[in-house]
Amino acid sequence: MTRQFLEETLELARQGEGLTSPNPAVGCVIVQGDHVAGRGYHTYAQVRHAEIVALEQAGAAARGATLYVSLEPCSHEGRTGPCADAIIAAGVARVVAITPDPNPQVSGKGFEALRAAGIEVELHPDLAPKAEALNRPFFQFMRTGLPLVTLKAALTLDGKIAAPEDNSGWITSEKARAHVQQIRHLSDSILTGINTVLADDCLLTDRSGRERSRPLLRIVLDSTLRLPLESKMVKSANGDVVAVCNSVAADWRRKALEEHGVQVVEAGSPDGRTDLRKVAAWLAERKYLSLMIEAGSRVNWAALDQGVVDRIFFYYAPKILGGTQSLPVAGGRGRPRRMDAIQFRNVSLHQITEDEFAVEAWVVKER
């Protein structure tokens, strides 16, 4: 039964997807004998952690019970008091968890507090890959101090993302585009280049229809601040649009955008390009734990070349554009030698429709 209850904690945690950032999604089940006395999951808006919700539901039945939880109970004071203290006060006899909390403030300390109070603690790391997959941005942020960066693209079988002339219509199907919205929903921020905005007048909003813990932060790489004030993105700005520029950007353009509710951030590099590593650091300082890049060929290559991308999610359509003028998924200078190619690991395929698929893979980081 232990595995069954732990699997249930993961299912409960999934109910908080998109609703917990910058906190992790956590689920909790309290069992008295063979009876489930309490269940809970965390959302940022409700403040209370999953364990507290489950303890309140269980009431007196929590005394002597077993508490199953997907992530180590916290032991530090944050927006709420320590969950470990609440578990001890409720008289829980046993805690079974899937994985330690990667947060250095917590990791191992929650278990230590429980054991010191005489509570039996068990870990079941066989389910840890599932628990970590559920909270990839949180684990990434706690281990590296940086957001999880996903590069998404829709492309033909020959790796093209745009034709040289007419680019009306879509490369992939409606179902594939709906799948993209689900990934957007799980992201804290999204980034594109100014040329994409000028060409498409895109909004870059979360159109999944699901609730979020905070608005999707929309970022435009715009070295000279050409973002039109009449664009859909600027007109819809409500503290959720950022223009990233270089030092050469005119002050009057900066002021005009700021007056329209757009944040302007300078993140240039000595070679005149935008430094995406500075953008990632800026996001991390504000606890945006994940970034999705949906851009053009040049920005895609810059993100890969600068080493900020952690994962790719490429949607392939059963089409070929061919030619030397059609844009590849990653342009720019590229790597001059095959031995210098950017490498990937843990490659997996996702069937989207009968004839479409997506490739998910993780970048092998250069040391």
Q: End-to-end span in angstroms? A: 43 Å
Total number of β-strand segments? 16
Low-confidence stretches: none
Average predicted confidence as pLDDT:
94
Main pleated-sheet profile: 9 strands, mixed
Write down the secondary-structure element order: HEEHEHEHEHHEEHEHEHEHEHEHEEEE
Q: Helix- and strand-based class?
A: alpha/beta
Indicate the proportion of strand residues: 15-25%
Radius of gyration (CA) equals 23 Å
Query: Rough shape?
Result: elongated
Arrangement of strands in the largest sheet: 11-10-9-8-12-6-13-16-15
Task: Please work out how many helical segments DSSP would assign.
Answer: 12
Helix content: 25-40%
Description:
The chain has 367 residues and is of the alpha/beta class. A nine-stranded mixed β-sheet has the order 11-10-9-8-12-6-13-16-15, sandwiched between helices. Strands 2-1-3-4-5 form a five-stranded mixed β-sheet, with helices on both faces. It has a two-stranded antiparallel ribbon with strand order 7-14. The radius of gyration is 23 Å and the shape is elongated. The mean pLDDT is 94.
Descriptive tags:
367 residues; alpha/beta; nine-stranded mixed β-sheet; five-stranded mixed β-sheet; 12 helices; 16 strands
